[in-house]
Amino acid sequence: MAVPCPGCGRQYDVTLFEFGRTLWCTCGSRVGRETRARRLDAAAGARFIADAMLGRLARWLRLLGFDCAWEAHIPDERLVRRGVEEGRVILSRDRALADEWRVSELHLLQAEKVRDQLVEVVRRFDLAPDIRLLTRCSECNEPLAPLPAALAAERVPARVLERQRRFSGCPACERVYWEGTHTDRIKRFVDGIVAEASGAPG
Ligand SMILES: [Zn+2]
Ligand SMILES: [Zn+2]
Fold this sequence. Notes:
Elements: E1 2-4, E2 11-13, E3 23-24, E4 30-31, E5 48-50, H1 55-63, E6 68-70, H2 76-85, E7 89-92, H3 95-100, E8 106-108, H4 114-124, E9 145-147, H5 149-152, H6 158-163, E10 167-169, E11 176-178, H7 181-198
Parallel strand pairs: 5-6, 5-7, 7-8
Antiparallel strand pairs: 1-2, 3-4, 9-10, 10-11
Helix pairs in contact: 1-4, 4-7
The site of one zinc ion (ZN) has 8 residues, from loops.
């Protein structure tokens, strides 16, 4: 029996997933056996827009692969209008916003620290199965595209080029991303987020 990666379809042997173990596929997806039904209220393929105060949360959601719009100094009216027009869940910590605007797709965050906010959003929208690391630019929210090593060569340090073969680039800001040592740290961080989000609802 094989377990497919939800991101790229690559098959993994079932014995790798004993006791609920999960692993990271090379495509940046988390692979594991589905042990619980997804919550019915989870917004499949949820897209977000974060208010001006939540820039760090937006950046993290993008690193995890989620579409999260963010603008500095965005007025409430524009935030709400973008959310409604673009079908995005509005993320905010501003109670006044929820009082002033009757929008159903608004999630008022309880958590104050960015890590706790991430846990809260991953849990509320059941995002864990859809995490795709390094598939979206953390700076401008654009989906990344594969970048041939020859093209990446102009934009990354030589020492990186010696060790990495796979690169992706942001079509908007031309930032280059690769599986480097930094991703181990990110993966550990994300593992902690997912474990906490999957625990007993707080
Ligand atoms: Zn994969
Ligand atoms: Zn970018």
